Every structure is written in C-alpha cells, then in structure tokens.
Amino acid sequence: MIVTLNLGDFPAQALGKFNIEAQHPDDFVLALLESFPDLVADAATTHRTSLKNPEKTPDEYLAELDEQGLIKTVVALREFATL
C-alpha cells in the first residue's frame, strides 16, 4: 500500500501489476482507528502532547489534522477519544 495525498499520481491499473494500492491518508488512519481504536487514540494523544512549539489543545490539534485533509479521522476522533 502507498499512503499518499497524490492519488492521481498512482493509478490503480499501474499499481495493480504489483499488487499494490494507493490510499488517501484519511482513509488509512480511519481504517486503523476502526480496527484499533484505543491504540490510535492513544497515539494521537501522545503525538499531541509531544508538541511543544507551540503546544496544541485538543481542538487545535484536531483542527490542524482537518486542515491536512484528515476530515473523516477528525470526526471519528471527536466521537471516540479525549485527546
């Protein structure tokens, strides 16, 4: 699997020859969150709290993820976790 924002650069017909697929980061993280919710929520919390310059509140952290295109992931994290 290739996780990329540039899905257009990795056409399925070209990757299929190698049994590889391209996936958007939002879909990748969401699938991980659905399979391993506690681990992903803990990893997100650990990442957020490791940020020091500047520190991020949970809402600021989720807003940044949203700006980076992890829209579905942010919705799921808001419903599931306390960051």
Describe this structure in words.
The structure is a single chain. This protein is mainly α and 83 residues long. The chain has one domain. It has five helices and two strands; from the N terminus they run βαβαααα. It has helices at 12-16, 25-35, 37-50, 58-67, 71-80; strands at residues 2-3, 22-23. A two-stranded parallel sheet has the order 1-2. Helix 2 runs parallel beside helix 5 (71-80) and helix 4 runs antiparallel to helix 5 (71-80). It is elongated. The chain starts with a strand and ends with a helix. The model has no long low-confidence stretch (mean pLDDT 94).
Cα-to-Cα separation, first versus last residue:
28 Å
Query: How many extended strands?
Result: 2
**Quick one: biggest sheet?**
2 strands, parallel
Structural class: mainly alpha
Quick one: overall form? elongated
How many individual helices? 5
Overall mean pLDDT: 94
Poorly predicted residue ranges: none
Radius of gyration: 15 Å
Keywords:
two-stranded parallel sheet; 83 residues; elongated; mainly alpha
Structure summary:
With 83 residues, the protein is mostly helical.
Topology diagram in text:
Elements: E1 2-3, H1 12-16, E2 22-23, H2 25-35, H3 37-50, H4 58-67, H5 71-80
Parallel strand pairs: 1-2
Helix pairs in contact: 2-3, 2-5, 4-5
